[in-house]
Amino acid sequence: MSIDALKQQLPEFAKDVRLNLSAIAGDDTLTPQQKYGLLVACGIASRNAVVRDSLVAEAAPHLSPAAMTAAKAAATIMGMNNVYYRFVHLASNKQYGTLPAKLRMNVIASPGVDKADFELWSLAVSAINGCGMCIDAHEAVLAKAGVPTEHIQTAVRFAAIVQSAAIALEAGAVGLAA
């Protein structure tokens, strides 16, 4: 499966999503590794098997095994961190922010790919998962690394489009099972 196959599965009411997926496919703002790693990480973070499988298949020919693994790791580690740090941020009891997290996250320090690429993927997944603390932290690292604001915005736009595809598939399935 690929982006084109994914677009064909989207319901008619999701025409804008199809157009946005076409825009992703043709977007050359980012390096190929950044772009296709985003598709993998965001596809996994969407929690929709059709979206995930389509985007992993689309990305596979463009990513080294190390980059594929790192994109999967970004989605995985952010799945953990986004829950924890969103809780710390939202809890009224600010004492939680003073306690050690006691979470292993070595992959962030040594992702096996360019650190900025991994941070870009982590930012996009954090946007999907709605963790403000993680969004701020990853955006700050990217800015310090000299990643242009437009590239950061592109990564989050990709995340928004991927998530909307997953929602469109779910919405299209509503009422089908009787």
Question: Strands, helices and their partners?
Answer:
Blueprint (H helix, E strand, L loop, with lengths): L2 H7 L5 H12 L5 H14 L3 H11 L5 H26 L15 H4 L5 H15 L2 H13 L4 H25 L5
Q: Please indicate the count of domains.
A: 1
Distance between the termini: 28 Å
Helix and strand sequence: HHHHHHHHH
The rough form would be described as globular
CATH fold assignment? AhpD-like
How many DSSP-defined strands?
Answer: 0
Q: Tally the helices: what do you get?
A: 9
Helix residue percentage: over 70%
- So what's the CATH class? Mainly Alpha
Rg over CA atoms: 16 Å
- What low-confidence regions span 5 or more consecutive residues with pLDDT below 50? none
Description:
By secondary structure, the chain is mainly α. Helix content is 71%, strand content 0%. The protein has helices at residues 3-9, 15-26, 32-45, 49-59, 65-90, 106-109, 115-129, 132-144, 149-173. Helix 1 packs antiparallel against helix 2 (15-26), helix 3 packs parallel to helix 7 (115-129) and helix 5 (65-90) crosses helix 7 (115-129). It is globular. It starts with a helix and ends in a 5-residue tail after the last helix.
Summarize the structure.
The chain has helices at 3-9, 15-26, 32-45, 49-59, 65-90, 106-109, 115-129, 132-144, 149-173. It is an all-alpha fold.
Brief descriptors of the model:
71% helix; 178 residues; mainly alpha; single chain; AhpD-like
